[in-house]
Amino acid sequence: MQHLYVHVPFCVRRCSYCDFSIAVRKQIPAQEFVDLVLREAGSHDLAELETLYLGGGTPSLLPPSAIATLLKRFRQPQAAEVTLEANPEDVTPGNAKAWSAAGINRVSLGAQSFDDTVLKWMHRSHDAARIGAAVHALRGAGIDNISLDLIFALPDELKRDWERDLDMALALRPTHLSLYGLTVEPRTPLDRWISRGATHAPDEERYADEYLCAHRRLTADGYQFYEVSNAARDGFRSRHNSAYWSGKPYVGLGPAAHSYDGSTRRWNLRAWEAYRRAVTEGRSAVESEETLTREQREMERVYLALRTVEGLPLTAPYRPLPPLTAQRWVVEHDRMLKCTPEGWLRLDSLVHELSTL
Description:
The protein is α/β, with parallel strands linked by helices. The protein has two domains: 3-245, Aldolase class I (TIM Barrel), CATH 3.20.20.70; 310-355, no CATH class. It has 14 helices and 17 strands. A nine-stranded mixed sheet has the order 9-10-8-7-6-5-4-1-11, sandwiched between helices. Helix 6 runs parallel beside helix 8 (204-220) and helix 11 packs across helix 14. The longest helix is centred in the middle third of the chain and has 17 residues, at 204-220.
């Protein structure tokens, strides 16, 4: 296995839209977490890694020494991509230098918005000014491969200026941007607000307008959307996430982490306490697994390929295609089927239509 994901579940608070596997803690049990992850890693055959991704949760809450211990355990050649997800408020000059010294060479920064009112509504722990300060600190430490996360399609009553957020993000010259439309997940604060009428669900028209606006704006500024939600400058695609989209095997460690060996997908116990007890007692952290059928693997191959700019090789089962190309949702080029930006907005329905041809 050459691609490793480590899920760090700890957060200082839960964001209004979040349904990820997190553990809200005032005190982070960093040493215990590292010990458990390294113990779990012993059951995997981890080759020299091409990519290592620390995600969460909030990995930047771990002390730099804990991050260094994890990275020291896993072999990475000089050319490996080593990513840390970070919240802007955790990025100090000291932390950034320590991360760089430990081997972090890429940071995915959870900006989400440059509007303080929006950030407060999201329950984020930083203000807009911290985003620029974090980028400056990272570059000062020699970490130039910086990705910014932004969320679009927010409720109308917030009066969020999406184009202004894009302008503010681009002014920081990140190498990569990840753009996610707001979704309402069950049992989140946002779900409860909507159920009692305190706010409104995301509007589909706003979602489409803002997605297409971002596509035009970033493309004009020299970025390429190489995947439905991700845009990068030349040479700065996320190699780790690209491994997922190309169907390569990977290992996941930590609570709720997923692993895939090419045919079987496994996922760990979701809750931190359940994971902690299992590994401490010498039991497997795996909660369940699923071996994909040939049909499921084929459907997943089609779906993942159409998510990317390279597209899907045109083979016999996926003809004829005139109904899809006529609507300008897909284009055919060099025997590849590729989604247009409008097609990416309809990806699920496109895959369904292809599967019924």
